[in-house]
Write a structure and sequence with these properties.
By secondary structure, the chain is of the alpha/beta class. The protein has helices at residues 4-15, 19-30, 34-47, 67-80, 100-107, 109-113, 131-144, 160-165, 190-193, 207-222, 246-263, 265-290, 293-307, 313-324, and strands spanning 55-60, 85-91, 117-123, 149-153, 170-176, 196-200, 234-237.
Length: 325
């Protein structure tokens, strides 16, 4: 049994930078048990004053575009500056198979061996809702554990891009040369969310097509309305495997952070993200409540009345919430 005193112990060891304690705390936030949820909230509240100081970076791109390879290369650069790096990989399969993170660990081999790196897959969905729920909390935990840069790898599936965009300071899209937008599966709306695009695999025979892709990406970005931050998204040629252009991407990210901190957008964006977190928590709460058994029996009763023509669904909804409150 976990107790409150364990929470104090966990707090201390996370603050001291112990990675296995951090991993345990992440597992606790992922638990759907009410009792775990309360403990986890208690821990998070204690850690909250020590969170927020990291640079949160989201990385997206179709499967195979080189996100993990890029993270391996970028991570080296960042730890060479004496910083600590946390990598959260949003992994739709990890809940069931724990499969693809193994692949990722080998792709991030050097990084995973470093003392200053924490790598963790996050299940993309659970009883508690989508990606956002755990990942936002995991970000806070990592920050309180002293991680300076948080890299979040998302799969280009479902809602995950929008979810991740809503919890990071900087959003990077990896694209490949030699394939049209359709082929790359770039979903509508993604271009509007990015702060930079890295055309990856710009090496060997791909260099020419990568240059073309860069021109195309710049053209597409040029057509967009200016963003709220005033930032114009940058496009960089990169080879994550050969480690060319990775430092340029890092420079773009740092420049972005400097400019946005100076003009106030950084904090404004974080405040908006907190508001969004509250909205999602409220929706989540209602969904979880709705799934409880007593709700379904109340619903069944109302459905009968609706079927008989005694009640309108809108009326039933009002009565439903009036009764269960
Ligand atoms: N030529 C070349 N190959 C690369 C480059 N970056 C990654 N690759 C290769 O592309 C393949 C996929 O790379 P990953 O880093 O696993 O791609 P990913 O986007 O993380 O893939 P998922 O996690 O499955 O979505 C691997 O075989 C890499 O070695 C690059 O810059 N140049
Ligand atoms: Mg990957």
């Amino acid at each position: 049994m976990r107790t409150s005193s364990n929470i104090s112990g966990l707090f201390e060891s996370i603050r001291a930078g112990d990675r296995s304690s951090l991993a345990r705390a992440v597992t606790l936030t992922e638990s759907a048990l009410d009792s775990d949820r309360r403990l986890s909230e208690k821990l998070l509240k204690k850690l909250l004053p020590y969170s927020g100081q990291s640079l949160r970076i989201g990385i997206t791109g179709v499967p195979g575009s080189g996100k993990s390879t890029f993270i391996e290369a970028l991570g080296q650069l960042v730890i060479a500056e004496g910083k600590k790096v946390a990598v959260l990989a949003i992994d739709p399969s990890s809940q069931k198979t724990k499969g693809s993170i193994l692949g990722d660990k080998t792709r991030m081999e050097r990084l995973s061996r470093s003392e200053n790196v924490f790598i963790r897959p996050t299940p993309s969905g659970s009883a508690l809702g989508g990606v956002s729920f755990h990942t936002r909390e995991t970000i806070l935990l990592c920050e309180a554990a002293g991680y300076d840069v948080i890299l979040i790898e998302t799969m280009g599936v479902g809602q995950s891009e929008t979810d991740v965009r809503a919890m990071v300071d900087f959003f990077l899209l990896l694209m490949l040369g030699g394939a049209g937008d359709e082929l790359q599966g770039i979903k509508k709306g993604i271009m509007e969310m990015v702060d930079a695009i890295a055309i990856n695999k710009a090496d060997g025979d791909n260099i020419k097509s990568s240059q073309q892709a860069k021109a195309d990406a710049l053209g597409a970005l040029h057509l967009q309305a200016p963003s709220a931050s005033g930032w114009t998204p940058k496009v960089v040629l990169m080879s994550a495997r050969e480690n060319t252009g990775v430092a340029d991407v890092w420079k773009v990210i740092q420049t972005y952070a400097d400019v946005m901190r100076a003009n106030g957008f950084f904090e404004k964006n974080r405040a908006e993200q907190k508001e969004q977190w509250l909205e999602e928590s409220l929706q989540n709460y209602i969904r979880t409540e709705m799934d409880k058994p007593r709700m379904s029996s109340a619903k069944k009763k109302l459905l009968k009345e609706i079927a008989k023509g005694n009640m309108l669904p809108s009326e039933a909804a009002r009565e439903f919430w009036g009764k269960v409150r």
